[in-house]
Amino acid sequence: MTTISLVAALSACAPTRAQYDALQTTLEGSPQVRAQAIADCTKRHWSSERTGNLAKLMNVQEKQAKSTFCNRLHGGLASGRITYEDVKSVWSTPTPNMIRVMQGR
Fold this sequence. Notes:
Helices cover 73% and strands 0% of the residues. It contains seven helices and no strands. The longest helix is centred in the last third of the chain and has 18 residues, at 62-79. The protein has one domain. The protein is mainly alpha-helical.
């Protein structure tokens, strides 16, 4: 169930390698763009089920789930800790690395 929530939270379709590379480079090089991406992410509407599942996966309270997810996702992308292979995997089964990043490890 948390896998489905993670998949749904990331996006509806997988990015191409070129799109991932451009996003990673942009987030890495521009703290302002990263802050805006995090703000946009936290404004999205999530179902209570998705929020609850992500909270459990990330070991946080439900009220912290959105901001924690968005910060860990964009921070992981900016730092390169979340790889293209990790991003692609969430449309099937998230990699152990993706789960570790989402858990703040």
